[in-house]
From TrEMBL:
GO molecular function, one term: RNA binding
Domain of life: Eukaryota
Annotated InterPro entries: PPR_At4g14850-like_plant, TPR-like_helical_dom_sf
GO terms (BP aspect): RNA modification
Protein's recorded name: Pentatricopeptide
Amino acid sequence: MPCVIKACGGLLDVGLGQGVHGMVVKIGLALDVYVGNALIAVYEKFGFVGDSIKVFENMSERNLVSWNLMIGLSILETLSSTEVRSSFRCRR
């Protein structure tokens, strides 16, 4: 599934990406760390910062890629430092 999600980002098809996200939730793959990372990356590519943060916050497991995506997102999108800090603080 992560490859399918990445392909949606490559096609720049927001609707397809959101549809795949819905399907991922429906079939129970939303908790997979690789799927979560792919969703964060594709929402970042679409410029949907809020959706990226929601996916990150709902992930039951995070890895180095997850954290790097969020750090990169905060730098690229210049999120307010309080928003980023609150996301990181919740997971310590």
